[in-house]
Amino acid sequence: MATTSYKPRYVEASNLSKVICDGAKADHASGSCGNEREIEYDNGTDPAPLNIAIVGAGIGGLTAAIGLRQNGHNVSIYEQSRFANEVGAAIHLAPNANGILRRYGLCMETFGAVSLDYVTLYNGEGVKTKVMHLAESNKLWQHPWQLSHRVHLHEALKRTAISEYGIGRPAALHTSTRVTNVDTENAAITLESGKIIKADVVLGADGVYSKMRNFVSGHESQLHGSGKAAFRFLVEREKALRNPETAKLVKLDGEMAVWHGSDRRVVMYPCDHNRLLNFACIHPDTESQGGADGWNKEASLEQLLRVFRKFPGDLLSLLRMANPDSIKVWKLLDMDTLPTWAKGKLALLGESAHPMLPYQGQGGGAAIEDAAAIAAVMPAGTAPEDIPERLKLYEQIRYDRAHVIQDYSRQAGRDPAEGTPEINMMAYTAYNFGHDEIDYATQVFKKSQYAKNTSLCWKAPLGFGPVPSPRQSHLSRPQSHRQEQTFTTALVKFKSSGTFLQNLFPTKSFAFKSPATAVYASFSVTTFNNMTWIGGSGYNQLGLRIHGVEYKKEDGSSIIGTYIPVLFEDLADSIIAGRDEVGMPKVYCALDVHQRQKSYRMQASWQGAKFLDFEIEGLATVDHPDDRDTATSELDQGDLVYRYIPAVTDEAKGKADCEYSVIIPRYSSSAMWKATHVSKAKRARVVFDKRDVDALPTLHHIVEVLADIPIYEVVGAKVVQGTGVPDSTSGAKRID
């Protein structure tokens, strides 16, 4: 699978290349890796980081340290061994786990990991039963399926966690440090020396023989044998290639081979640039160690050959190439499902929470997924008092999936038996590989936070989360204004025909308060400046306002206001961005404003087709404006608007999904702005140009009506300048 190029952050002279992937951000489709990102805070401030204590420096603990470090937290790792070196030979990095590593900045091919390209199956007599070429099927997954030397992976994780290079503060690694007690309510750990260390959260990543598990469950959990044990060791591939008998078994790069007997199996796959062959030889545990527990027990070559003496000769020749001093044997342990992984401010991850049998190669992968989920629920800005809830959310995210994989591994390890149904490995593979824990856990966390905040604005498209609006950020925090917002409103008020304008009322609940047929209306143009929610820029708005309108409520009472049948705006964001604007009578057009000291002009057009000239001349400053010198000229109860959202499907054509009347109270709007300068005009004119459907394909029906509005007399014109936002729908209220 292709990856993007990378440049080394640092290189040290060593047998192990210590190169951390850098470069482009993680590319899901190509499987590229990168760790270039910034920590972002919605509130614009750097919150205090959490102090996190991780008990155990294995694969899960170190991966958690990387994710939490990159979130900006202070991480300390306490490892009881002296060198914090991972034991073992090699490990599968399946796409679900490898994707997390790559997004954390680790490209494991840099450290010798090889792509798994072939799987070859043999029976216990050495007869080849199946060959699977994975080149095409591997393209199904976002990230590569690789085989890594376990020590190389551990070293890469450790370097990424504690190095001064990378995102966030380096984690502190304390070796030869045993944790003997945990205060789960106060996140305090006690070391073997008696020293007590206070943290904000404690993570138990101390493996299958976990001591942290006891502090969650309240008692010592009982591990039990699965009935199987495994020899493990490495063989130099070059040595096998030089032997004609064994060369045919190891000739392909990236090949995993499995020999199945009735109650035992040998699994072989390469690592370290295809130079080493990793062996896991699984067998009844009574034949090698009499049921004794232990992860890293010494074993002998004679013992290995005796257990697999009935397997084919070429395979036995391959096994004889093992260094006798390097052969280890460990009992494959299992454990009943824990009822919970978290208590107070302590949570378990990896094999501390769910010991995993090795038959799917998902033990390390599940620990990596756990770590990614923990990092997802504890982003920058997490408050210490939220930790117990966040750890329970982590458990909710991971519990079912980890135990399903655990059960799949048990099934995959069953010996062939008469009548046993064949295992659907494709279903297992799809479940295991078709998951990205960072994406999944992040989305669950976001939804959990959204559910707590009833002030969020939601509108389509919903999949991207809540929307920012003119009045608040996407997380419902009030918009902080970097500079003072200002406006300019030009208004021409005129006498018109009530019998004509009443045809613009949407329902019979709207009518003129006065029985007179001579009524008043206004065309107003407002320019909004320094609008924080659109990056400090501004936009223009043109509206028709019909004054003296009475709305009869269902209870018989009335509201007197100014009805707005249409608003033109020259910025799409202002029409569709806010929840309050959805269904409002807003449409788009170009509005070109030219203001001078004594004149004001505006032209409205659509893609070059002009349809309105709006002109005010002879402006003079008003020294003592009266109470009616507002942006709207009216002192009624507010602006009346009708919201309408159409239904879909042919059967519902012409009908509404919802429709209702709204008032924007005058007190709500006026509280958000203040007039600082008022100029009145000597002359004004408003001239519409009827354009046909070719010139105005989306607006001609509106402009045609506006052009027919009688303007009997211009009764007033002015320009009002001020601070704030006079057009506010944030206070809009549904009437009935």
TrEMBL record:
InterPro entries tied to this protein: Acetoacetate_decarboxylase, ADC_dom_sf, FAD-bd, FAD-dep_Monooxygenase_BioMet, FAD/NAD-bd_sf
Keyword field: FAD, Flavoprotein, Monooxygenase, Oxidoreductase
Annotated FAD-binding domain residues: 52-404
Entries under SUPFAM superfamilies matching the protein: Acetoacetate decarboxylase-like, FAD-linked reductases, C-terminal domain, FAD/NAD(P)-binding domain
GO terms of molecular function: FAD binding; lyase activity; monooxygenase activity
Signal peptide, first to last residue: none
Pfam family, one: FAD_binding_3
UniProt KW Lipid biosynthesis keyword: no
Membership in a protein family: Belongs to the paxM FAD-dependent monooxygenase family.
Protein name: FAD-binding domain-containing protein
